[in-house]
Amino acid sequence: MQLRDKTMIMDETAMGRALTRIAHEIIERNKGVEKVAVVGIRRRGGPLAKRLAARIEEIEGVEVPVGILDITLYRDDLTTLASQPVVHRTEVNFNINGLIIVLVDDVLYTGRTVRAALDALIDLGRPKAIQLAVLVDRGHRELPIKADFIGRNVPTSRQEEIAVRVKEIDSKDEVVIQEIVDT
Amino acid sequence: MGFEQKKDLLGLRELSREDIELILNIALPMKDVIKRDIKKVPTLRGKALATVFYEPSTRTRTSFEIAGKYLSADTVNLTVSTSSVLKGESLRDTIKTIEVMGFDLLVMRHSMSGAPHYVARNTDMRIINAGDGANEHPTQALLDIFSIREKKGSLEDLKIAIVGDILHSRVARSNIYGLSKFGCEIRVVGPSTLMPPEIEKLGVKRYYSLDEALDGVDVINVLRIQRERQQIGLFPSLDEYANLYMISPEHLLRARDDVLVLHPGPLNRGIEISSQIADSNVAVINEQITNGVAVRMALLFLMMGGARDEIAN
Amino acid sequence: MRLLIKGGRVIDPANGLNALMDVLLDEGRIVAVNNDLPDDDAEVIDAKDKIVCPGFIDMHVHLREPGQEYKEDISSGSKAAAAGGFTTVCCMPNTEPAIDNAAVASFIRERARKTGLTNVLPIGAITQGRAGNELSEMAELVSAGCIAVSDDGSPVMRTDIMRNGLEYAKMFALPVLAHCEDLNLSRDGQMHEGYYSIIYGLKGIPVEAEEVMIARDIMLTRLTGGYLHVCHISTRGAVDLVRKAKKEGLNVTCEVTPHHLVLSDEAVGTYDANTKVNPPLRSWEHIEALREALNEGVIDCIATDHAPHHLESKDCEYILASPGISGLETAVALIMNELVHPGILDIEKMVSLFTTGPADILGLDRGTLSPGQVADVTVLDPDMVKTVDPAKFYSKGKNTPFIGRELKGWPYMTIRAGKIVACAGKIV
Question: Residue B115 in contact with residue C317, Cβ under 8 Å?
């Protein structure tokens, strides 16, 4: 299966604005960030979480803990894969007990990744609450999961893919809709 | 062919450097899991593994058992005494019995070299060799290599001495196969009667003098001496063995300051290793045990995580 | 019945023959070997592009009967021999009971006579029960048809008994076929000691386990003036010892098996117990030495050491497996494919190693196509290509490490006392 970029839906500026807005919303919702920590889901949730934390610090002048969650061991599709994805380390180097954890991912789709992330997070401790921030919500949920903070809602068909690109991994910031090319 | 396409893990000789690195890299997050309060992940829920040991072992067996449980696999230890072999049930029949109970993977230890290879040919279950005769003990070597890499950062250009009964040691063989893929200089040292002929052909240097062998080494892997070897005339006495080959503080002066001492356990204190060394901070013997669980979790994940139908035998 | 084998290449080393000729057989005897013999009323066998030889002799087989008929019996072993191109086989005495008395020897000859496919000659034990302690009654064994003595399967560990055995057998002109192995050196050994035994973690058998005993037995031959034949020689050092003994003029001969000539110890790596054999498969250094010794004449004959086993003795852990290879039905093809076709061994030499070689050692009135001789003839098809498939063996022993090997050059026809007993690998 090959994919081809179809439409750009967010450029660098738009992504930056969306993250700034989400940072504000997180602060507003939680009336400050005293008990807030940000945890990104590997891979692209990681850089996004770090950026959100940086913006929160710019706005509030408070440093919030940031972590990265690897959810491979919690995936529900392992036995249907031909070979195993590589497991990476989870880097949550703070005690999450009693914290409000803002879970960050690039795209919210079926909800299965978030489901795995919730399990993984809860195995690390007992947070006071978990909130979900995503850059793009593309619909088609298969589980009763809903985001608290959304950069943009993008209606898609199941034949399309959403690619979020971040400078830290892909050397540019953009969100595009991709379509499958028959080869 | 990458490791995850192989059906079994029978030895390190057949693995590539990339295969070993993959296993070690996955062992890192597994070690994090072990260190958490909640040490269980749901990864292998619904999978079943059995351990069958035809030779007594507590730590390897327990290590596999807990590794399986941390990954949520159902883990069963089957007690097969060697006497049942004598009573006439063939190994093949025993294995078939286990297979039809629905196990996905079998961890097997056997006193006879090649027994796991024989079993692997005759079953659909995946086989992990937990030690066969004097042949290989791949998971022990993997945890040794993991421990060395963890402490030294890299394996490149390390000088590693393996001390003791090289002739009968599966740990030595698997270490030699594994470490030589990373460009280490490997030295083997022990009494001449416990040294295989033509060992140099494995790319190692042979020593009889402990002091010479330890000169400038980064790592010392001390093998356990089996007392019964003395009875068949391979060395005169444990005392003489200890005089010649026991790792003690004086010998360590020859090695590098940051030398690391490994031992697969259980220890014969005062024979192959002195208590001062075993209990000192140069020894990573306890850390090895933790790492053993992590490495075995990584292996179980790699071998049972994917859909088995799609994996070529 | 008259048979005319027409147009084949006749190789008869005893008569120095290697030419396109016809061979006429009648009433179980060779009648004539010559150009363009008239076919009269004889049945004509077209031997164009075939090689016509004296019937092949295998002086070292285990037929297992009496006692282990589940592994092989004289009937199945005779069929295997005939299919493999052999007209005469000599069976080792490690049966249950052992061939250490006239009754067992006579029983075997009687059974073989009834089967009728192959000339089966029993070998008597050197010691009673092959236990290595008391000499067997050799005069009785000779009278019952034994053509040699051997404790094969076990060495005679006691040097004094071996001395007496060589001394006593000399009276009857019986060769002593020695299984040379120092059991103290080879104990628990599974394979050749060397690089691959370290790699595979199996206890090695050093070449010295064989050579020490050959050296001892050669010395005892010098002491006694007896006749020593060294079974299944497998090392460079063993070859050197035999060469030296022959130069000295001692009555010493030796044999080599096909598997020791073509398969090395590396093959053990699969832990397939079909590679387990005693003496063990050696390294290439030794294989090269054996091949040189064949050409040089230090080795007198090729013998299979045909050792059929039941499946359960091989389908198990390597260390628990019984040693041995079922060799009768692959021997000729292995030698043809691995040695003759690549030019390592001359075809005439090969024929002598299977005919005059063993006949001379045992003093048999066979192994030639001289007129008047028993009409035992082996016809080879040097171009036939076939894959080794133990399922098609006549032997009950399916234990071969050569399974699936495609070989070129097979026995085409086996004629025993003037009667066609096998054709193209099938018993007639």
Answer: yes
For chain B, list the domains and their CATH numbers.
3-136+290-310 (3.40.50.1370), 138-288 (3.40.50.1370)
| pLDDT (tens digit per residue) in C343-359 | 999 999 999 999 999 99
User: Is the CB of C271 inside 8 Å of chain B's CB atoms?
Assistant: yes
DSSP H helical ranges for B87-205:
91-100, 115-121, 138-152, 170-180
Q: Where are the domains of chain C?
A: 2-51+374-427, 55-362
Q: Which CATH superfamily, name and number, covers C2-51+374-427?
A: Urease, subunit C, domain 1 (2.30.40.10)
Q: Say if residues B288 and B264 touch (Cβ distance below 8 Å).
A: yes
CA separation for the pair B115, C200 (Å, rounded): 11
Largest separation between any pair of C-alpha atoms in chain A: 53
DSSP string across C283-336: -HHHHHHHHHHHHHTSS-EE---B----GGGTSS-GGGSPP-B--TTTHHHHHI
* Token representation of residue A65: 């803990």
CA atoms within 13 A on the CB side of C178: 36
Residue of B21, B28, B37, B43 to mutate, testing the A interface (most A Cβ within 10 Å of its Cβ): B43
| Residue of chain B minimizing CA distance to A86 | B26
Mean pLDDT over residues B239-256, rounded? Answer: 94
* Cβ-defined contact of A124 to B36 (cutoff 8 Å): yes
User: What pLDDT score does C143 carry?
Assistant: 96
Q: Return the closest-CA partner of residue A80 out of B58, B46, B254, B298.
A: B46
Distance from CA of A49 to the nearest CA of B (A): 20
